[in-house]
Amino acid sequence: WDFSFVYLLGVTGNIGTFTGEKMFLKDFISNISSFGFSVMDETYGYNMTKYNGFLLYNRQHCECVIEIYHEGDMVFVVEE
Length: 80
Description:
Number of domains: 1
Order of helices and strands: EEHEEE
Number of helices: 1
Strand content: over 45%
Low-confidence stretches: none
Shape: globular
Number of strands: 5
Mean pLDDT: 87
Oligomer: single chain
Distance between the termini: 28 Å
């Protein structure tokens, strides 16, 4: 958890200067329980997985980056 972060980057569609917020992934999960996240890009590196996309929360869209630090293999669980 120590090296896993979420970046929330203002309202979508903006260019130029922006405002945003960086928080620990565990705090994001604790504070925002019901949201939608559309993944636009995935990046996998050494012990790091990064998802870039758009977050829908309280009827507002914003750009979002989720960085997950992990050791070992990443396992995806799919519900059908």
